[in-house]
Design goal:
By secondary structure, the chain is mainly alpha-helical. It has a domain at 3-304 and 377-456: Hydantoin permease. The chain has helices at 3-24, 30-35, 42-53, 56-69, 74-98, 103-110, 114-147, 151-201, 206-209, 222-232, 245-260, 263-266, 275-293, 296-311, 326-334, 367-374, 379-417, 423-445, 452-476, 482-503, 532-549, 555-565; strands spanning 337-338, 361-362, 508-509, 512-513.
Length: 576
């Protein structure tokens, strides 16, 4: 069976499964729409959380970043997994004990202020919408290859799929759909990795294969071979650190606290029956996530090695363009891979020097999806990877859209502007808000500010600088008050947004960017993706100082903070 037909069958079967689950689990109440009726078991919630969080950035883009950035990309592995430790220890159980539907609802009640709630909604929408842009980039990449169309057409097709099952099912439908999507994406990620590791090293375990010698008889280790291939062509050594240490540290920190402050992830812990289940869910989520994250370094390194070997089969001998393999032709159709014959010799020269490099575009987000084709794996494996990439992008997009939808319908309309809104009206408003968010995110996804993982890193920085400090102070600092919280959130979000817009080249004077996005121009060498940690520090300092300079919270709010921190069944707090 040819690849295109097989891909349609595999992807079509997964879509049928998602739609069946969404329709069978259709939300009929606000409780089911927002928190799945608070009846999801911890193990299943951990699996759904893993799928919700392991987005296109994790499945499609992270290994691509690792393939091209090497050692420096390890921060994504550390930051995106380390954040779950913070989430399990510092936030999930306390927020579940409080028992509300959304993060802005907790902030509004804790800081006894509708202004604080509205501010939290603004922060949530900014962070979540940025995150969805990254998912839309991933959806466009996956669908463009699957349908063999250009990127824009693939994106429109993906938007339509997201609209159908996310708007129908609400949190209840999305939860059980995400469990199925996790099974699809983790199988699709690990199976090709096992094949490729076995082919290159003779070891079927990718994590071990990455540190093994090649099976070609050379006796060279995989990473040594990759270092040599790249340095011979003028690229930096794969295993060498290229960025500054302070930027790597702050980027790791930003991704960690951003993970712990992401509203669509936190919402998942409102869906379990008991407080202890929230912490248990986090542990299970980390287990399920680790399966992919320990495999990603091997996928990235082996993908880069296979790519270089395909274009240069022997040292000094470049592949003729007319002899390019089918995978090359397929990805050229999407516009995400481009060749320009600069010297007219008809060969594909891929070198570090931009003046002579003829691979003028190799989008990093294609590497995981193209890897099975590059390695000449069976068609069913290639089809499976396409289904997995689509599942990863769709699962997270649905979770983010639910967070945006609940913030608008539950926190703004029901909570602030229309308190008499009926449950039926609130459900309708939530679905309309979700549809609007899909349209906006799709439009922005056509021209994203970077690769999927880079865009997602920006979203984590925005969450880190705005929501995480407000939650931490709300749980662990009784003296934190509404004025401090509001000014702190706006300060952290504002300074981070300005920094991102400035160095991403979105401020213009006569068509020229004010500040080029290069390490030489960054403040202390801190990249826009890493600046969220600085924004979080600003938020903490501003909120703490202003809270100590103004009136303390009312007594009942201070008792509320004490009660949240006391384990269930431990009795009332005692002052010593």
């Amino acid at each position: 069976m040819d690849l295109k037909t097989l891909t349609f069958i595999v992807v079509g079967a997964t879509f049928a499964l998602y739609f069946f689950i969404a329709i069978r689990s259709r939300a009929s109440s606000t409780g089911e729409f927002y928190v799945a009726g608070k009846g999801v078991p911890p193990v299943l919630n951990g699996m759904a959380t893993a799928a919700d969080w392991m987005s296109a950035a994790s499945f499609i883009s992270m290994a691509g970043l690792i393939a091209f950035k090497g050692y420096d990309a390890s921060v994504y592995l550390m930051g995106w997994t380390g954040g779950y430790v913070l989430l399990a220890m510092l936030l999930a159980p306390y927020l579940r004990k409080y028992g509300k539907y959304t993060v802005p609802e907790f902030i509004g009640d804790r800081y006894y202020s509708q202004t604080a709630r509205i501010t939290a909604v603004i922060c949530l929408i900014v962070a979540s919408l940025t995150y969805v842009i990254g998912q839309m980039k991933g959806i466009g990449v996956a669908f463009s290859r699957f349908l063999e169309v250009d990127f824009a057409t693939g994106l429109y097709a993906g938007m339509a799929i997201v609209f159908v099952y996310a708007v129908l099912g609400g949190m209840k439908g999305v939860t059980y759909t995400q469990i199925a999507q996790y099974c699809v994406l983790i199988f699709a990620y690990t199976v090709p990795a096992i094949f490729i590791s076995l082919h290159l090293t003779g070891n079927p375990i990718p994590q071990i294969g990455l540190g093994s010698t090649l099976s070609d008889g050379s006796g060279m280790y995989v990473l040594d071979k990759l270092d040599k291939v790249l340095t011979d062509l003028g690229f930096g050594a794969y295993t060498a650190q290229k960025g500054s240490t302070i930027n790597m540290f702050l980027l790791t920190l930003s991704l960690m606290i951003g993970t712990a402050g992401l509203p669509h992830v936190i919402m998942r812990f409102f869906t379990v029956p008991k407080v202890k289940d929230a912490r248990s869910s986090t542990g299970w989520a980390l287990v399920f996530i680790a399966i992919l994250y320990t495999t990603a370094p091997a996928v990235g390194a082996m993908a880069r090695l296979n790519l270089m070997h395909t274009i240069q089969p022997e040292p000094g001998k470049w592949l003729k363009y007319e002899d390019r393999p089918s995978w090359f032709k397929n990805w050229e159709k999407t516009g995400l891979l481009k060749f320009e014959d600069k010297n007219g010799d008809g060969r594909i020269q891929y070198v570090a020097d931009k003046k002579t490099n003829e691979m003028v575009k190799v989008d990093r987000d294609i590497m995981v999806l193209a890897n099975p084709e590059i390695a000449n794996l069976p068609n069913w494996v290639i089809a499976l990877v396409a289904a997995g990439g689509i599942a990863a992008a769709l699962s997270t997009a649905a979770g983010l859209l639910l967070a945006i939808s609940s913030a608008i319908s539950h926190d703004l309309m029901k909570g602030v502007f229309m308190p008499d809104l009926t449950e039926k009206g609130e459900l309708l408003a939530g679905r309309i808000a979700m549809a609007g968010a899909i349209i906006v995110a799709g439009y922005l996804g056509l021209n994203p500010p970077g690769f999927a993982a880079q865009v997602v890193a920006l979203a984590f920085g925005l969450a880190a600088s705005s929501i995480f400090p407000a939650l931490m102070l709300g749980i662990f600092h009784k003296r934190a008050n509404r004025t401090g919280a509001v000014v702190g959130m706006l300060s952290g979000l504002g300074i981070t947004l300005i920094y991102i817009f400035w160095f991403k080249g979105w401020f213009f004077i006569k068509g020229t960017a004010m500040a080029p996005n290069t390490p030489d121009h960054w403040f202390l060498g801190i990249s826009p993706e890493a600046f969220g940690a600085v924004g979080a520090l600003v938020n903490f300092v501003v909120a703490s100082v202003i809270s100590n300079m103004t009136e303390p919270p009312p007594e009942h709010i201070q008792h509320l903070v004490e009660d949240i921190r006391v384990p269930a069944g431990a009795g009332a707090p005692v002052d010593h």
